[in-house]
User: What shape does this take?
Amino acid sequence: MANWNPWHGCKKLSPGCANCYVYRGDSRRGLDAAQVYRTKTYDLPLQKKRDGSWKVPPGEMVWTCFSSDFLLEEADDWRPWAWAMMQARSDLYFFFITKRIHRLLDHLPSDWGQGYENVGICSTAEDQPRAQQRLPLLLSAPIRHKSIACEPLLGPLDLRPWLGPEITQVVAGGESGPNARPCRYEWILDLRQQCMEAGVPFLFKQTGAKLIKDGKLYQIPRKLQHSQARRANINFQCRTFRPLHGGQEWSVLGGKPITPKK
Assistant: This one.
């Protein structure tokens, strides 16, 4: 897998942004995460090694714009070139998460059609109001691979109106950082149950720094938040998808390639 951040910095938009990890990380370095700039790796998908081969080899999954928001207003002048690089590297699978799904239709490339086969788009839904605002737009948008991120999960969520075969996965997790808001384990389990009923893969990605389970508050160190979520053993994988023509099959849980069954 590869990480591609064509621009860095973001503007807070909704309750899920309150304790943003990008702001937290930039603050430790004395930087202002609200300042948006194009990065030195802006053209990473097109960069080559000295021997002429791609720096990001064919078949890789590319985590895109995780230090910003791909649909951020301040990136409007740069985004057309990013779309063009995704189209040029159809041998890669690009994946980005956005809180600005409402801006997608007005900022798609002219050759988008029903979506690039090698691009997955995930909308966040950290609470019920955000789910009701964003998920109808996600479902109606021309996107080949759609997913939902309930992270940081700030309350109980009913996703039933939007769960169906077009959703490749639902990811849920608590909030990290010293000022994290608590996540209740029953909220996680309820989302899992909704996904199982709808036949949609589910991933419990991380516990967050404060997890309430059986009425007890657990303070979980950052380094253990992902491993503790895995130890819960509640992920639900009912299907996989193959976003690249002739490419490898990908697990919808965590975006990891899997070995096809013999």
User: Anything to note?
Assistant: The chain has five helices and 14 strands. The two ends are 24 Å apart (CA to CA). The chain has a mean pLDDT of 92. The helical segments are 21-28, 79-88, 128-140, 185-198, 225-231.
